[in-house]
Amino acid sequence: MSESINQFFIKLENWKFQQFNPQVGITDPENNAYAIQFQPENRSKKMNLGTFYTLLQDPQASQIQALICQIGYEKYWNDNISFGIVLEALCDAYEKLPNLQALFIGDAEQHEYRKSKLAVFDIRPILEAFPKL
Fold first, then answer.
1. Are the C-beta atoms of 103 and 69 separated by less than 8 Å?
2. DSSP 8-38
């Protein structure tokens, strides 16, 4: 029965994990979930989006089906800001990622005994921008 249920739901596990490397680019957008690191800049209220923008400029960006957005933690930051910046950058990129079917936004580092420090709020803009999710 679980196999029949799985055919109706798309999961991030359906793709192989691939850290995006700007020197290599996008090589297999149908089979890889590309991971991007979003790092806050020390003590400023800015997020380094350079790697994300490089991914969007790749000729195969429109073919990406799965994306993993790993947000780094900076102790000087209010983490409401970091999630909002990533959310806004993704929504602004909706035309460049028309085939996006799976999306993860979360901590860059997973800790077994610690809950996320990210303040996740209304994700409705993402769902509206990417109707295939």
1. yes
2. T---GGGSEEEE--TTT--S-TTTEEEEEEE
Phi and psi, residue 9, nearest 5°: -120, 130
Strand partners, 117: none
Nearest in space to 96 (alpha carbons), one of 57, 131, 67, 66:
57
Distance (Å, whole) CA 8 – CA 16: 19
Q: Return the domain boundaries, the chain.
A: 2-129
Q: How far is CA 34 from CA 31, 59, 88, 93, 112, in A?
A: 9, 15, 19, 15, 23
Strands 47-48 and 32-40: antiparallel
For 60-107, write each residue's pLDDT tens digit. Answer: 999 999 999 988 876 555 556 788 889 999 999 999 999 999 999 887
| pTM for the model | 0.83
DSSP character at residue 41 = P
